[in-house]
Amino acid sequence: MVRTWWGRVVGLGALCALGACGEPLVATPEPLEPGRRLAGGATTVDDGTSHGFSIPAPNLDPDRLDFHLDGDLAFEQVFVRAPAPVNPGLGPVFNAQACDQCHDRDGRTRDAFLMRLSLPTEPGAAPTPVPAYGIQLQDQSVFGTPPEGRIDMNWTEVPGVYADGTPYSLRRPDPVMVDAYAGLPAEVRTSVRMPRPVFGLGLLEAISDATLLGLADAADADGDGISGRVNRLRSAIDGAEVIGRFGWKANQPSLLEQTAAAYREDMGVTNSIFPAETSSGQLGQDDSLGDDPELSDEELAAATFYVQTLAVPAARRIEDAEVVTGERLFRDAGCTGCHVPRLETGTFSDVPEVSRQVIYPYTDLLLHDMGPELADGRSDWDATGSEWRTPPLWGIGLSRLVNGHTDLLHDGRARSPEEAILWHGGEGASSRDFFRNLSALERDALIAFLESL
């Protein structure tokens, strides 16, 4: 309870700390985006500590804050690893026993890898499940049930050289599935995924479809080499065609569906949206109990509201000369073509706290072709095997403090923002090459800018 109590106290006082009591927010010289310190609009908190991702939005009223804290408890609930029916919901196969085992302190837990699986799938369709496995490898299980296998991550160093002669080294992942409990088809597609931070997600959900469609440029009509597009999919709730905005491939349309899917796929906890176990029909794993939903709608709603109303940490050092220089270089490199700095949220009646906010997430939530350098060869609805959703950059400078590492990209291959830039290909290749041709001081400035977010 220490963390949630602390979050309640700090959250209620955060707006005054951010300047709502009359203090100036930005010193001179002003950066190119002087308002960007308030990265999450009225949901921003001025906290640069290891708790920076875990604070309630400061504009929650007392009743809504209580609901947020109920969701915090749901997010931290540990499901017991015991045989069914003693086990209250977990498994029979799973990857984690609680949400925060993958999202430590609401960030990204190191080495909490997942492996997505599918068979070759027609474009525009949901991933085709693999017999005996489904669409995700579950590497843990309740007592008496075999896990599906586990991931062995191997890495190969890939040397490179900047234009000024400075050497660097990247690491290429070679994930291998070992101890498989059943045979795998030769044509199986695999993709390793790393957890994403969960703060600020309600703001991203509140961005209108019209805004996303306005940012999209599938045919690259403006000729800038960037052709972002939305992912279109079918809602698991009512089957309607919707636009995806969450997940590495933008394959989830809402936080309710994202949260419900995570409970079922990651923990084997069924719910009213996904009522069937992931192991249903799998030999040696299906417990044949025909469980009712193991998570109530109330618990699901609370956990969803929790991630919808986590505050966004304020940007830091925005008046620093090196950071200002780095921001200009970030723009000159063309990075803002995908990592759009400033967006406005629409009206979101379910969570009015995130409505009508000017925010600085540095994303367009669109799919971009990142070339063979980052391709996994696995399609997901309209997303091809080389397309990825632009990840938000807010909070990236606090990652080491919050989670003890700076591993980035979908499979964690980049050990720093610098390495993440150097892995860009496809639509990001020109920005990567711009960065590689900068001087050491200019590269340091650009990275300093990213670390201010």
Keywords:
globular; alpha+beta; two-stranded parallel sheet; 453 residues; single chain
**Largest sheet, spatial ordering of strands:** 1-10
Structural class assignment: alpha+beta
The best one-word shape is globular
| Uncertain stretches of 5 or more adjacent residues | 1-29
Helix percent reads: 25-40%
Order of helices and strands: HEHEEEEEEHHEEHHEHEEEEHHHH
Distance between the termini: 29 Å
What is the strand content?
5-15%
Specify the number of helices. Answer: 11
Q: Mean of residue pLDDT?
A: 91
Number of strands: 14
Q: Radius of gyration over alpha carbons?
A: 22 Å
Question: What's the quick description here?
Answer:
The protein has 453 residues and is α+β, with helices and mostly antiparallel strands. The protein is built from eleven helices and 14 strands.
